[in-house]
Design goal:
Number of domains: 3
CATH superfamily of the largest domain: Response regulator
CATH topology of the largest domain: Rossmann fold
CATH class of the largest domain: Alpha Beta
Structural class: alpha/beta
Largest sheet: 5 strands, parallel
Number of strands: 8
Helix content: 40-55%
Radius of gyration: 26 Å
Distance between the termini: 85 Å
Strand content: 5-15%
Number of helices: 12
Order of helices and strands: HHHHEHEHEHEEHEHEHEHH
CATH architecture of the largest domain: 3-Layer(aba) Sandwich
Length: 274
């Protein structure tokens, strides 16, 4: 017995009494089709077990309906760790894509390749979301290159007026200040900061600015020995924490520039002195 013939958009058009292009527009959600006609076409499509051929549809429209999310690899020995803060954002991104009929392609940022060629030119994705970066002085050149190529991209990071492309981020200055004020309110007076305090890591730098501002508003001196450079790994947080404890054993509490760095701060914060 031969297999049952697969339904086509022409079958739906015949059953609905409309043209095939109208069926295509209705199933794409085009506003040029009235709600009543769209509902009738969708009901017939369901009855006929019709599914849209996404590949063919994307080829005709020139769109992939896919967004590529490229994650920065934390500098660990096996280069497979991802900042847990970014993983917490993943569900919301997947939900937003699904709500708009898009797929989310997740991969690592490969710095040896051309992201525009790998994703937009090769029709793997319509645009990029970039999460995480290392030294911003090196990363900035790649962002400038994406802009020059006409790449559609958005990144999470420190928001500044002179940055290439579109950036979404949080108020890191306010975050650093609020964390410091909270510790001061608990009676702490010697507060260490673990994290790079230069513009090579803009988000850390902004948190450090907030930390300094909160100390100043409470009349507290910012001891340079209580700032130790660290990046986004637990191993480096441990190193910086130990270095801080060795420099100033009486340090009572620590502000870490990242959550992974913070998880390694026990050595520096173990002293109860204030």
């Amino acid at each position: 017995m031969s297999a049952q013939r697969k339904s086509t958009s022409f079958d739906i058009a015949q059953a609905a009494g409309v043209s095939q292009p109208t069926v295509s527009r209705a199933l794409r959600g085009s506003p040029t089709v009235s709600p009543a006609t769209r509902q009738r076409i969708e009901a017939i499509a369901k009855q006929l077990n019709y599914t849209v051929d996404r590949s063919a549809s994307n080829l005709r429209s020139g769109k992939t309906r896919t967004i590529a999310l490229l994650l920065f690899r934390d500098p660990t020995p096996d280069e497979t760790e991802v900042n847990p803060f970014f993983l917490g954002m993943l569900g919301a991104m997947m939900g937003a894509c699904a709500d708009h009929g898009y797929d989310l392609l997740v991969s690592f940022q490969n710095f040896s390749s051309d992201w525009h060629t790998d994703y937009e030119d090769s029709h793997r994705a319509d645009g990029l979301i970039l999460l995480g970066y290392g030294d911003y002085a090196d990363y900035r050149a790649r962002l400038d290159h994406l802009v020059a190529q006409g790449t559609h991209f958005i990144r999470w990071g420190s928001v500044r007026h002179d940055q290439p492309g579109l950036t979404v981020g949080c108020d890191n200055v306010a975050g650093g200040a609020e964390a410091t004020r909270h510790l001061i309110a608990q009676g702490r007076r010697r507060i260490a900061f673990l994290g790079d305090a230069t513009d090579h890591y803009p988000e850390f730098y902004d948190r450090h600015r907030g930390y300094l501002a909160a100390l100043e508003e409470h009349g507290l001196h910012a001891d340079p020995h209580l700032q130790v450079d660290a990046i986004t790994t637990e191993e480096d947080g441990t190193r910086a924490s130990n270095a801080c404890a060795a420099r100033v054993p009486s340090s009572s509490v620590v502000i870490a520039s990242t959550c992974k760095c913070g998880s390694a701060c026990r050595p520096c914060s173990s002293s109860a002195a204030r």
